[in-house]
Amino acid sequence: MNFRILVYSGCKRKYTKRRIENMNMHLLDSHSRQARRNIVEMVAAAGSGHPGGSLSCTDILTWLYDSRIDLKRPDRDRLVLSKGHAAPALYAQLAVHDRITRDEMLTLRRLGSPLQGHPNMEDLPDVDMSTGSLGQGLSAAVGMAWADRYKGSERRIWCVCGDGELEEGQIWEAAMAAGKFSLGNLTLFVDLNGLQIAGAVSEIGGDNQYGKALQAFGWQVLEIDGHDFEQIEQAVLEAEADSRPTAILCHTVKGKGVSFMENQAGWHGKAPNAMQLQEALIQLEETGK
After folding, report:
1. To the nearest whole number, what is the mean pLDDT of the chain?
2. Helix, strand, coil shares of the chain as percentages rounded to 5?
3. 207 with 279: CB under 8 angstroms?
4. HEC-encoded secondary structure of 222-276
5. Rounded to an integer, what distance in angstroms lies between the CA atom of residue 257 and that of residue 213?
6. Which is nearest to 148 in space by CA: 125, 128, 175, 165?
7. What is the CA radius of gyration of the chain?
8. What is the pTM of this model?
9. Is 219 left (phi over 0), alpha (psi -120 to 50) or beta?
10. Which pLDDT tens digit goes with each residue over 39-72?
């Protein structure tokens, strides 16, 4: 995919492709590759989970945890993973940044493990919001952003939703509130991988009018390739410079990085067997993203 950053407005501004000076591209690629390996390993060990949507949002989370969310700082930015079934993508980042051990990572979904199928803030201190009921995470993020602005906090709230999740009515109630109160400290990443558990989003409930709807509610809306770190960086800089809440529509590939999982709705919620795991790990070692 080769998307420019597009801005939903009367005229679309064009951006020149450039390398962001303060980014370590090699480190980002390395962390992204390791996170993807972590995802397939933990889902395989659990025998269940959601690899497809976890792999599609990996580059978004990699950029955030490498560039904006410093897990060692108590006053750091906050993340709400509204698509909570993609918890392996979040746990993979915690492992990359040494917040959980490899042995802990491989306890995904086990009885008594803090790494359940959906993130639980009561079990893991680095989880900022318990999520899993689709549509509710953005409401929580709006509340956090509103509270931070009231308190004068300079931290930002980042939220990640799925495109199938945008079929939930609560998403639009939250979006309307964020726009009305100009919550410029809130940024929403929409993981547009085009597939949900029952098939193509476009055939089930999506109408590809998300950008226009969010703009109508007072949001700045950007559209990028969600696997391109430079485009993610440029979009975030746009978000941080605007007084409105920003939605970044990220075109992604479900199952990104594992050829037999890519663009396959069947891998929304299925674990690889031993042979498939080894094939996936080989591919991720060779190709990274």
Report:
1. 92
2. 45, 10, 45
3. no
4. EEEECCCHHHHHHHHHHHHCCCCCEEEEEECCCCCCCCCCCCCHHHCCCCCCHHH
5. 31
6. 128
7. 18
8. 0.92
9. beta
10. 999 999 999 999 999 999 999 999 999 999 999 9
